[in-house]
Specification:
CATH architecture of the largest domain: 3-Layer(aba) Sandwich
Strand content: 15-25%
Bound molecules: adenosine-5'-diphosphate, magnesium ion
Low-confidence stretches: none
Largest sheet: 6 strands, antiparallel
Number of domains: 3
Mean pLDDT: 94
Structural class: alpha+beta
CATH class of the largest domain: Alpha Beta
Radius of gyration: 26 Å
Length: 560
């Protein structure tokens, strides 16, 4: 600490690059400060720093971090306190460019592993990563201002967020209890064969299209009596709500009655949410994958023959490539890819589907003989996907009653209140027999997918565009239709995973599942920092296997 101070005082007014000398680790009273990377000029991306509070100093009880689910919730809790504190000290030191900016990760409503805060499960050490715009006057060093940040402003922020006795004990315990309860929900869902659980009292709609905060004054969720299950949670106790069993579930109802809101909730709750979110007792199978049309996406040597065959140009759909897929072929590719990535639950909204991928009506079936139509619509496959492969589907359909024939459960949203209408729907459907034969045989889903990952030579720069995608060297990777990517931090982790795999396996043909396995194993062993070489770890959030595979599938381009 003294060394840093004297170094700093010695470099005042010197040219900005002299700041580079500060790289290193320094002992402060309660923690170690590490200056991991120093920016090149006052306008460049701020410098990367981290602090480590030793387990003994932090004093967090072991029961808060020994088990993984609690540790993730603890890290999330600490990070939110830290980020709040950091927000208050930002720009209190002044200067040109980004001088005085102090910033940490801003977690959204989800609770997920983030590189910005890590608690070591072995010894309870607390680590925060953040960035600081090293202050300058013009282009010369403003050492006094940096001294103010590192010696006056920062220590109380670190101590308030990283030391147990300064934390709000009650709030922390509530967080731990919620983590236990959320884990119990997911475990009991498996035991009961549920793919989703929505607790009574949950608030599903959000404040607005751009805010993930709960809508005020919304109609609370209440399960139809026939679908109500009772879970026993260790802290909350009895928790009642709607259990959606495995199989094919339809969400129907008039326009604006809350169908898409329910489906969106299920898409999001593959992750757990913070207390007060309204969805903290809602959970969907972790492998649940939103499937939608994505016209214009590229498809590279993909077997989409379960859904598309006999194309007019004679193209082989068991090895199908295009740089510009149609609505139906893109949705077919997305479905097949989700199955390959290991999804056990498909989430589909007719609002974002290609109609001809989903269904073909009786009249059309008569006029255009099935032989001439390349598409095997999803309605023919959805039951088979569950019966033969154990893959469930939850489907929003407001406009097409034919799906009643293939559904196991039908839920009607009525003024935001769900009602189970399975029997009525099935009864009514008898008067409108399904004109087509559904597929019931063994589904010929190819088990494996081999892909060729291009080599990357030198350092390809990654630039993230929020949840839309990223650029990797000269390539743009458009992931905006992988709608479950939570934020830019998760996007960066996905990009880093791609970089990691390209370095190792670039220039070879390899099984896609092997690539996904490798990243999963790496993340499991080393956490997010395993994705990066060196000691500068950017802000990342834990990605899922589905999105990593989805990214690779969109990144590889066919040679046409
Ligand atoms: P649908 O898909 O059935 O047409 P949406 O799910 O898009 O309907 O919902 C329509 C509108 O109703 C949205 O603006 C949504 O925010 C609002 N909404 C949804 N659920 C609720 C609720 N439980 N309470 C109040 N408003 C809701
Ligand atoms: Mg809708």
């Amino acid at each position: 600490m003294r060394e840093l101070q004297s170094k700093l005082r010695g470099m005042d007014h010197r040219g900005y690059p002299a700041y580079k000398d500060l790289k290193g680790r320094y002992r402060f009273e309660k923690y170690e400060l590490s200056i991991d990377h120093v920016q090149g000029d006052p306008f460049a991306s701020p410098s990367s720093l981290s602090v480590r509070v030793a387990g003994k100093t932090a004093g967090i009880p072991e029961e808060c971090y020994r088990e993984k689910h609690r540790r993730v919730a603890l890290e999330d809790f600490l990070l939110r306190r830290f980020a709040e504190g950091v927000g208050k000290i930002s720009f209190q030191a002044k200067g040109s460019g980004k001088s005085g900016l102090v910033s940490a990760s801003h977690p959204g409503q989800e609770i997920m592993e983030r590189s910005a805060c890590q608690v070591n499960p072995e010894n309870g050490q607390v680590l925060f990563r953040f960035s600081v715009g090293f202050p300058a006057r013009g282009r010369s060093i403003a050492a006094g201002e940096l001294e103010k940040i590192l010696f006056r402003l920062l220590p109380p922020v670190v101590e308030e967020a990283g030391i147990f006795e300064n934390l709000n004990y009650k709030a922390l315990m509530k967080t731990m209890e919620l983590a236990d309860d959320q884990k119990a929900i997911r475990r009991q869902m498996k035991e009961l064969g549920l793919v989703a659980f929505v607790a009574n009292g949950a608030i599903l709609p959000r404040e607005s299209g751009v805010s993930e905060r709960p809508m005020r004054g919304a109609v609370e969720f209440i399960s139809p009596a026939s679908m109500e299950v009772v879970l026993q949670l260790p802290h909350k106790g009895e928790c009642r709500g709607m259990g959606i069993p495995q199989g094919v579930t339809l969400i129907v109802g008039g326009g604006y009655h809350g169908k898409s809101t329910l489906l969106k909730t299920l898409e999001k709750t593959v992750y757990s949410h913070i207390a007060g979110d309204g969805r903290e007792y809602v959970a969907t199978d972790e492998s649940g994958m939103k499937i939608r049309a994505e016209d214009g996406r590229s498809v590279c040597e993909e077997d989409i023959s379960p859904f598309i065959r006999n194309l007019p140009n004679g193209k082989d759909t068991s090895c199908f490539s295009t740089l510009d897929a149609s609505g139906s072929t893109s949705q077919a590719a997305n479905t097949v890819e989700a199955v390959w990535a290991g999804s056990r639950l498909l989430l589909i909204d007719e609002d974002t589907s290609a109609t001809n991928f989903m269904i073909r009506d009786e009249l059309m079936e008569q006029v255009i003989a099935a032989k001439k139509e390349p598409i095997v619509p999803f309605i023919k496959r959805v039951g088979q996907l569950y019966q033969k492969k154990g893959i469930s589907t939850i489907l929003v359909v407001g406009s097409c009653g034919a799906f009643f024939h293939v559904a196991d459960k039908v839920i009607q949203m009525d003024h935001y209140v769900p009602k189970e209408i399975t029997n009525e729907a099935k009864e009514a459907a008898k008067a409108f027999p399904l004109a087509m034969e559904t597929e019931t045989g063994q589904i010929e889903f190819p088990d494996e997918r081999y892909i060729y990952l291009p080599k990357v030579e030198d350092r390809n720069k990654i630039k993230v565009m929020g949840t839309d995608g990223f650029s990797f060297g000269k390539k743009q990777v458009d992931l905006r239709y992988l709608e479950q990517i939570t934020d830019g931090e998760q996007m960066l982790a996905i990009a880093k995973a791609l970089e990691y795999l390209s370095r190792r396996y670039g220039g070879r043909k390899i099984r896609l599942s092997e690539l996904a396995d490798e990243v999963e194993a790496l993340l499991g062993q080393k956490g997010l920092s395993g994705l990066c070489g060196g000691n500068v770890i950017p802000n990342m959030a834990m990605p899922r296997r589905m999105e990593i595979a989805g990214c690779i599938n969109r990144y590889i381009k066919p040679k046409l």
